[in-house]
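Continuing the series of single-chain predictions for the mutant panel. This is the parent chain; the variants come on the following pages.
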Amino acid sequence: MNKRLVIHVMVMLITIIVGGYIARQLNSGVERTAMEGKAFSTTYAGFNKFASDIQWMLFINYAGSIKSVNKDTAPIIYKKLKAIVANDPGFAKAYEMGALMLSVEEPEKALEILEIGFGNKALSSNYKIPLYAGLILTHYFPDKETNKTLSRAEKYSKVAVARSSGGEKGAIGQLIYVRAKKIKNDGTYTFSKDVVISVTSDKQARIIALFDEWRATQEKSMAMNSTNSMPADFSPVGFDNFNKINYTEMILPLIQSAKQSESENKDVIDTITLIRNEMFKGRHLCDKCIFSYGPGEKFCSSCGINVQVYGICPKCSSVVKGRFCSSCGTDAVPHKAEQVRHE
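Parent structure:
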């Protein structure tokens, strides 16, 4: 008999025997871990992930068979999820979907599941896990209104924003929600060394929270430019994502709404004035309704009151589109021309 043929036959026999052993182990192990909520104690040639996939299918079937998540079904769901993520720690959907299922009945267990995923370096770019952790803390925890719980939620929410694209409205919305809750609980906000604002309204607190995030990002950006180094609490990607957020466009509708609905609240009006002067320097906004108006306009198109006219030729009063008036040729910025001649 050909020696090479004998070797091939022996290799095939060994492969069949070993494969059969692994298959038997997996067959009993998958059923045991899936139904009893246990994970493999040994890694079988990378088959743990395969087992996790099977467990996930069984989990989906179980989830579809129950009417609701209650005190009886929640512990079973929890055990199954723990087994799934133990066999495949990088299974993001198991953390996300599983935690949401447990969030109402067992918020502490839901957070525990998410914290396992949050600590996994392989999922360090996943923003949904910290986002859901923050949401569960602020909506389902018994002490959700306390600053202690809100501070925990803030930590997760900041990570969610840093990991997202910066345009993810759910992430920034959750962060502002948490920050506003804390500000309202505190009752005051230190605008500057000499100015402390009383916080008496939920809408006011949300406006301040947005302003505070905007100012913090501006300060960190300036510090980075002056020192040419990244702020200690931001990764390069995270800092870039915070910089992408258009805080001014997010806060403007809130200010406009508050100006109308809370016009009798002095604390709110004072807050709007302070923030407007800092965030909207150079922008022409109606004093009454805070809507923008264009060059040459004498009345606000939103509320109809007189506005301070800008952008017109000092000679013929035409709207100026550049340095020189397109109607009469007058230098519309004579002080700048004078400065150039002196230089």
